[in-house]
Amino acid sequence: MAEPKKLFIKTYGCQMNVYDSERMAEALGTQGYVMTDTAEAADMILLNTCHIREKASEKVYSELGRLKPLKDLNPDLKIGIAGCVAQAEGEEIMRRAPVVDLVVGPQSYHRLPAMEAQVRAGQKALDTEFPAEDKFEHLPRRPLPNRAPTAFLTVQEGCDKFCAFCVVPYTRGAEVSRPVDRILSEARDLAERGVREITLLGQNVNAYHGAAQDGAWTLARLIRDLARIDGLARIRFTTSHPNDMDDDLIAAHGDCDKLMPYLHLPVQSGSDRILKAMNRKHTAADYLRLIDRLRAARPDILLSGDFIVGFPGETDADFEATLDLVRAVGYGQAYSFKYSARPGTPAAERPGVAPDVADARLQQLQALLTEQQRATQAGMVGREVKVLFEKPGRMAGQMVGKSEYLHAVHVTSDAVAIGDIARVRILASGPNSLAGEVLGLV
Ligand code: 5AD
Ligand code: SF4
């Protein structure tokens, strides 16, 4: 029997790319590909790229430089670019980087098998259309032999919000929600194969409005239905826009046991002037009110966010307003970024903040967020949490999993296996994880 062809995928950026990489691997599986962990062993290398900030995009070009010599060693090796850089700059990459054989945009993954055949025949293949057909309908049903206990499930893609700094509406296109029945059947499949926690993904996931027989469903309604699936113990969703947190979704945090008490809700800035310039369409006070309502529904909810510093026009006073908002919310964890001008976005036309000022602000904000993260973790010591175990730890007898609040928790115990959920008392807090003792299985 001929050796199967080997596929290596390197994934950059967000969780949706992680999900997309799995689906691309499955699509190429139909062409006889199996996965390999090393680029050197591969017959096909796909870079699943991110365009969100300049640094993320640049990684593609440096990686292509590193991969080029592999083509001399293996003349049959094909190299493809997928993801948001493919969408935004695919044609240019094809022109400028002869090592690239294939460029596939995020909405065209279902065409990969045909494109693979084309490159094997010695041609180049490029597809960055937003095709009329739904790629999910044309991707193979998920084979998934034995799954890890956690999985991503894309329910919505694209964004109509047009924040002034963001490329997503251009690279991922307009908001599209997958139909309810497809999501439910994919979730049932995952649960049957041992998945206990599903994270629903979308660039603007809480704007979900998927078609069902009785009209369009909201994300809250979808979550309530997913919660009825046996075996599925936990549901999360990311990423959300504050303006799409409707009443039912807030209520679900209080009354849906399977919905985990953790919410990533980016605000980007605490200054109303900057929020307006960013086209966020909400104020800092709106956001704080929303946080109060979420905490009223679920007092222990842990909040996460995204922040941009150095957005064009940001003054010291604007930045202070961001620090004030962070102090008012008290984040369990958050991400902060230096503004990066992205070609084609409205903000890219405006003069930026001096780089050293932006650097200093980023440091100051990150210090505050790190302090809040440490304090939140330290506050878990002595508490009892429920941990879903995902993998063995580095030390013998150790197991690692995640609490409801998405904290990594280590235990030393032979009483728990991967996929188990156990009650755990937290004993200590390290820089990035917690340590605890198992009290019993749930
Ligand atoms: N510059 C810096 N950060 C950005 N983000 C999106 N676009 C940019 C940009 N041009 C950040 C936002 C968003 C997260 C995914 O990335 O904070 O929530
Ligand atoms: Fe980008 Fe999110 Fe704004 Fe959409 S809502 S434009 S994905 S930052």
Describe this structure in words.
It is built from 13 helices and 21 strands. α9 runs parallel beside α11 (284-297). The termini are far apart. The chain folds into three domains: 5-127, Methylthiotransferase, N-terminal domain (Rossmann fold); 144-378, Alpha-Beta Horseshoe (pyruvate-formate lyase- activating enzyme), CATH 3.80.30.20; 384-441, Nucleic acid-binding proteins (OB fold (Dihydrolipoamide Acetyltransferase, E2P), Beta Barrel). The protein has a six-stranded parallel beta sheet with strand order 2-1-3-4-5-6, with helices on both faces. Strands 17-18-19-21-20 form a five-stranded mixed β-barrel. Strands 7-10-13 form a three-stranded parallel beta sheet, sandwiched between helices. By secondary structure, the chain is α/β, with parallel strands linked by helices. The chain has helices at residues 15-29, 54-73, 83-96, 112-120, 135-138, 168-171, 180-192, 219-226, 247-255, 272-277, 284-297, 316-329, 355-378, and strands at residues 5-11, 33-35, 44-49, 78-82, 102-104, 125-127, 150-154, 156-157, 176-177, 197-201, 210-212, 215-217, 234-238, 262-264, 302-309, 333-338, 384-392, 398-403, 408-412, 421-429, 434-441. The mean pLDDT is 95. β18 and β19 (408-412) form a beta hairpin. The protein is globular and about 60 Å long. The structure holds 5'-deoxyadenosine and iron/sulfur cluster. The site of 5'-deoxyadenosine has 12 residues, from β15.
